[in-house]
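Pasting as-is:
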Amino acid sequence: MNNEDELIYELLDNLIKHTTAPGEIHICPICNGEIHVWFGGYKRGEESLFGATIRCESCGIQMALDYAIPPPSWVKTNYTKPDEL
């Protein structure tokens, strides 16, 4: 893992610790430009998971990753629970 990856992981780790949705636009830890961060939830079998996608307008870094931990309560999901149908 390179230093840029570590900086992005640190940013994402800090954001998922928020008790409310952290919003989309943040300061890029690499170039101090505008970085867009999106979180989304999904189902894999019965398991609720979530992922993050980032893109910086200034330095062009892009990354998508999936987390192997339950999503924070503020993560929006793109699935419907059976009792909500």
